[in-house]
Amino acid sequence: MKKALLGVALILAVGATAVAQDELASTVTIVNDSDWGIHYLYLSPTSDNEWGPDQLGDATIAPNGGTFLLHSIPCDTYDVKLVDEDGDECVVGAVDLCLDDDTWHITNAKLLSCEGYGD
Fold first, then answer.
1. Tell me, what's the pLDDT at 118?
2. Which of 2, 70, 93, 119 lies at a 20 to 30 A Cα distance from 79?
């Protein structure tokens, strides 16, 4: 009987932890208002030295209004790397994602500035 109660308590504790983590997760809608398609999107906790997997998978974010939804992003501070259709990279460091439902708008000016071509 004690083993059965311990098992139920353990399941409830694990379930409560999963719910707490989901409540801290972020959702980000990315809107590509630039003239270039976004072909890769990487996230990596700022403390990591390697990029995480490509968040887009087989998808691309079309230019001029295409969107992509990132969901269930664990609470952390991230570096973000976008790669456009020309292979140009844009890296933004120390993006805090915790308890956020946010929208990121990628514009020509922001993309070019990030790549080192604009103001």
1. 57
2. 119
| Enclosing domain of residue 39 | 26-114
Distance CA 41, CA 59 (A): 10
99 pLDDT more than 60 = yes
Number of domains forming the structure of the chain: 1
CATH code, domain with 77: 2.60.40.2890
pTM: 0.77
CA distance 8 to 82: 44
Are 118 and 94 in contact by the 8 Å Cβ rule? The answer is no
Segment (H or E) for 108:
helix 108-114
Query: How many other C-beta atoms lie within 10 A of the C-beta of residue 82?
Result: 26
Express each pLDDT in 20-48 by its tens digit. Answer: 445 678 999 999 999 999 999 999 999 99
Contact 66, 114 (CB under 8 A): no
How many other C-beta atoms are found inside a 10 Å radius of the C-beta of residue 36? 20
